[in-house]
Amino acid sequence: MSTNYYVQTDVIEPDGPDDPGVHLGKWSSGWGFLARAHPGVSDTAERWRSLLASGAVRTEADVPVAPQHLLELVRAGRREQRRHQLFGGQYEDDGMRFESRPFC
Q1: Nearest-angstrom CA–CA distance, 16 and 25
Q2: Which of 14, 37, 49, 53 has the smallest number of CB atoms closer than 10 Å to its CB?
Q3: CB neighbourhood size of 99 (10 A)
Q4: Residue 54 CB coordination number (10 Å)
Q5: Would you write out the chain's pLDDT as a tens digit for each of its 104 residues?
């Protein structure tokens, strides 16, 4: 099971016309949270947290999510991520795992 998270903001445009906002990343059971890196906007943990705070956060099913809840998921997933290697386009910053390419 997995869930994609989006922020509704005017900081940058969504990846695609059907996206409900700017993709923040995806939580996957057994894998933890993978953050979507938008170059120059959310490509570090600090910048990602700023993007998170820039608007309303919702899931792909349009369920509202408190930013603090998403941060807790990110922290909780760090243990799961340590078991998995980084793949092409992925990197870590301040304990967060990022993907530099669009994904869903």
Answers
A1: 14
A2: 53
A3: 19
A4: 18
A5: 899 999 999 999 888 888 889 999 999 877 789 999 999 999 999 999 999 999 999 999 999 999 999 999 888 866 655 556 677 788 888 889 899 888 87
Asked if residue 35 lies in contact with residue 74, where contact means CB atoms within 8 angstroms, the answer is yes
How would DSSP label each residue in the chain? -EEEEEEE-SSS--SSTT-SSEEEEEEETTTEEEEEP-TTTSSSHHHHHHHHTTSEEEETT--EE-HHHHHHHHHHHHHHHTTS---TTEEEETTEEEESS---
Q: Which residue type occupies 45?
A: A
Written as six digits, the tokens of 48 are 């990602």
Buried b (16+ CB within 10 A) or exposed e, 16-44: eeeebbbbbbbbeeeebbbbbbbeebbbb
Alpha-carbon distance of 70 to 31, in angstroms, equals 15
What is the token pair recorded at 51?
């993007």
Q: Which tokens hold the place of 19?
A: 């996206």
